[in-house]
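Below is a filled-in request sheet from our internal design queue. Each sheet records the structural input a requester submitted and the sequence that came back. We keep these sheets so that new team members can see what a complete request looks like end to end.

REQUESTER: design group, bay 2
PRIORITY: normal
MODE: inverse folding
CHAIN LENGTH: 360
BACKBONE (tokenized):
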């Protein structure tokens, strides 16, 4: 039987995960503008920056100023945005970044939620964090306590669930154990990440069935799919059928590993691990995801038409055609196309007139 919840919860992570993969610097003004537009469109959770070393990821050198400007936005103030309903999320892979987030919170502009990440493949984890898994778990436990004391929620991310781009096949059972561990040490929720598009719809259904059998609360689990091989929305649907209702996506389906080139200069980024073709990766597209859910009768709380407008704007910002199909075709028509019908009627009358020798 088709599982169709009344509502799903979609987090947009364009400003962080989307822009980190771009090889041009996206201006602070543009980042603020997109945050404003997304919030006004109804997005309640946004991932906006990374507090890691800006020498490695110069796209986020403006992270602190970005948070300040979002918090004090005159546009959002005029719209009467209720900040109690909004979660601004920042990536904090290591403890130093967590400490920066806590300091920013104390100064009145910091994030509501931060993220730390583990991979079930230790080689992938080391490439991502620079530390071993046993060391990282100890660090994460310290950081979660610090974050809680500061009033910040912690998300624990689990990666390489369906395979590792470095070591190859992995065991889904390990990801279930890692999820349990995150929640046991105090994480608020867990992101289950397919960072390189390794998952297939059948394996997605199997994994999330295992997860919800082990930890039944669907609000504790967030599905994060890259559509590298074109299966993104199919994987979303499979997760939905397993009982998942929280998803992440980006405008235009952009995103991927931190770029190793920015504007005219090579930067560390992900180094040799970076994809050879940066356009071959990317996340599930927010526009397509929101529209698909709404067309299925599943409430998202997000204004479809506004999201489609944002998608068109993003193509101008990045100066290329992105992945969204919805911005080309829009929602499915809900009534007859009157102008088309009128045109067709005239053409039919003309055809009949020619056959009978009459003119209309």
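RETURNED SEQUENCE:
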């Amino acid at each position: 039987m088709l599982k169709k919840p009344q509502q799903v919860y979609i987090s947009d992570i364009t400003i962080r995960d989307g822009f980190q993969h771009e090889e041009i610097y996206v201006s602070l003004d543009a980042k603020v503008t997109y945050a404003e537009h997304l919030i006004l469109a109804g997005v309640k959770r946004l991932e906006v920056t990374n507090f890691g070393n800006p020498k490695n990821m110069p796209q986020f050198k403006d992270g602190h100023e970005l948070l300040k400007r979002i918090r004090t936005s005159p546009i959002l103030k005029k719209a009467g945005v209720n900040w109690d309903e909004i979660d601004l999320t920042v990536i904090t892979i290591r403890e130093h970044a967590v400490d920066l987030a806590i300091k920013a919170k104390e100064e009145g502009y910091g994030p509501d939620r931060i993220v730390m990440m583990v991979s079930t493949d230790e080689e992938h984890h080391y490439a991502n964090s620079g530390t071993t898994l046993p060391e990282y778990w100890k660090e994460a436990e310290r950081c979660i306590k610090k974050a809680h004391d500061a009033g910040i929620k912690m998300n624990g991310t689990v990666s390489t669930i369906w395979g590792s781009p470095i070591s190859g096949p992995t065991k889904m059972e390990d990801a279930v154990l890692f999820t349990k561990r995150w929640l046991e040490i105090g994480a608020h929720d867990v992101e289950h990440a397919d960072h390189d598009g390794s998952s297939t719809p059948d394996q997605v259904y199997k994994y999330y069935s295992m997860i919800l059998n082990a930890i039944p609360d669907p609000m504790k689990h967030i599905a994060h799919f890259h559509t590298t091989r074109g299966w993104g929305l199919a994987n979303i649907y499979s997760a939905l059928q397993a009982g998942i209702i929280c998803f992440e996506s980006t405008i235009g389906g952009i995103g991927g590993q931190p770029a190793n080139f920015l504007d005219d200069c090579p930067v560390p980024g992900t180094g040799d691990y970076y994809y050879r073709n940066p356009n071959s990766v990317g996340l599930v597209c927010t526009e397509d995801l929101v529209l698909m859910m709404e067309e299925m009768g599943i409430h998202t709380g997000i204004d479809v038409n506004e999201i489609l407008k944002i998608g068109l704007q993003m193509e101008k910002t990045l100066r290329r055609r992105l992945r969204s199909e919805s911005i080309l075709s829009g929602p499915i028509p809900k009534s007859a196309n009157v102008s088309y019908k009128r045109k067709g009627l005239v053409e039919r009358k003309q055809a009949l007139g020619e056959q009978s020798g009459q003119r209309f």
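SHEET NOTES:
- The longest helix spans residues 338-356.
- The chain has a mean pLDDT of 92.
FILED BY: M.R.
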